[in-house]
Amino acid sequence: MKYTVVLEPSDEGYAVSVPGLPGCHSQGATEEEAMANIAEAVSDYLAVVRELTQGKLIREIEIAA
């Protein structure tokens, strides 16, 4: 899957967030480290979503951009 991320320079290097996943943020000393960290954060975020929705009625929709 691909997610849009927002990178912002910070005092510690880079802050990075995923606008499509509220609360999904990370950081890194370099852009490469920030990107690796946000990839892990997205994976953890999605694991929690799967856990919280387990046993619920789930459907997918497609939205035209």
TrEMBL record:
Segments forming domain HicB-like antitoxin of toxin-antitoxin system: 3-52
Alphabetical list of SUPFAM superfamilies matching this protein: TTHA1013/TTHA0281-like
Domain of life, source organism: Bacteria
Signal peptide region: none
Pfam families assigned: HicB_lk_antitox
Gene3D superfamilies registered for this protein in UniProt: 3.30.160.250
Name assigned to this protein: HicB-like antitoxin of toxin-antitoxin system domain-containing protein
Lineage per the UniProt record: Bacteria, Pseudomonadati, Pseudomonadota, Gammaproteobacteria, Chromatiales
